[in-house]
């Protein structure tokens, strides 16, 4: 067991070290692919708006949580325009500090800036309509991802949603030594969601991304 614990510790600490060196810019957040930000946000908005609104089974718009928020790219362009309050969580304090200026005037509607790895985060019970988890599940081990999703479920309001948007590999698990993360195939993601006791309400592949990057899928869970 010692090896696993040791491997797990360095898996997390190496990721912290990697992000500490990344510039707090949109391009830094997107690993040099800042140009895809618009396509990404527009795809996310179309996906999310299927669920939001008034009436039976619809998801409210009081409060959202941006997981692995970085400098707040998604908060600024996707979540603040749709929700009254948004909380940000990121493992890198420098990014959260930068978010305070990057978000501008609308940043006044940020509820909390939480500096934490998701493996340690316990989101406030019953607070969120939407928990948005994008490009960050690769930084969690399988067990930690399952546990985190279960904690997220407890943090949802009635009809709340957990949204995962992330890279998927064609087959199996592909490690990335550079930022100390992994990329899982869709079948593995599905099985971990199932282990967490969640169901997939809707799933889509993001279109119009550059051919050379991984496919990106968005899943709505409850």
Automatic annotation (TrEMBL):
It is found in: Nucleus. It is an enzyme of class 2 (transferase). It catalyses: N-terminal L-alanyl-L-prolyl-L-lysyl-[protein] + 3 S-adenosyl-L-methionine = N-terminal N,N,N-trimethyl-L-alanyl-L-prolyl-L-lysyl-[protein] + 3 S-adenosyl-L-homocysteine + 3 H(+); N-terminal L-prolyl-L-prolyl-L-lysyl-[protein] + 2 S-adenosyl-L-methionine = N-terminal N,N-dimethyl-L-prolyl-L-prolyl-L-lysyl-[protein] + 2 S-adenosyl-L-homocysteine + 2 H(+); N-terminal L-seryl-L-prolyl-L-lysyl-[protein] + 3 S-adenosyl-L-methionine = N-terminal N,N,N-trimethyl-L-seryl-L-prolyl-L-lysyl-[protein] + 3 S-adenosyl-L-homocysteine + 3 H(+). GO terms for biological process: methylation. It comes from the Eukaryota. Transmembrane segments: none annotated. S-adenosyl-L-methionine binds at residues 68, 73, 90-92, 118-119, 134. Its main location: nucleus. GO terms for molecular function: N-terminal protein N-methyltransferase activity. Its EC number is 2.1.1.244. One of its GO terms (cellular component) is nucleus. Keywords: Methyltransferase, Nucleus, S-adenosyl-L-methionine, Transferase. PANTHER family: AD-003 - RELATED, N-TERMINAL XAA-PRO-LYS N-METHYLTRANSFERASE 1. Belongs to the methyltransferase superfamily. NTM1 family. This is protein N-terminal methyltransferase. It comes from Cyclopterus lumpus.
């Amino acid at each position: 067991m010692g090896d696993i614990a040791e491997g797990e510790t360095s898996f997390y600490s190496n990721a912290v070290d990697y992000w500490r060196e990344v510039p707090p810019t949109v391009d830094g957040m997107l690993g040099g692919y800042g140009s895809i930000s618009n396509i990404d946000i527009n795809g996310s908005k179309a996906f999310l708006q299927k669920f939001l609104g008034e009436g039976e089974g619809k998801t409210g718009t009081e409060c959202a949580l941006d997981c692995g928020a970085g400098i707040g790219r998604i908060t600024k362009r996707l979540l603040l325009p749709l929700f009254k309050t948004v909380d940000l969580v990121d493992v890198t304090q420098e990014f959260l500090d930068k978010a305070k200026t990057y978000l501008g005037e609308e940043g006044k509607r940020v509820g909390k800036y939480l500096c934490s790895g998701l493996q340690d985060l316990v989101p406030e019970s019953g607070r969120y309509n939407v928990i948005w988890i994008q490009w960050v599940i690769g930084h969690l081990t399988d067990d930690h991802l399952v546990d985190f999703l279960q904690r997220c479920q407890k943090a949802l309001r009635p009809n709340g949603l957990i949204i995962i948007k992330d890279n998927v590999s064609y087959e199996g698990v592909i490690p990335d030594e550079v930022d100390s993360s992994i990329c899982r195939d869709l079948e593995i993601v599905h099985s971990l969601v199932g282990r967490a006791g969640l169901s997939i309400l809707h799933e889509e592949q993001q279109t119009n991304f550059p051919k050379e990057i991984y496919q990106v899928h968005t899943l709505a869970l409850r």
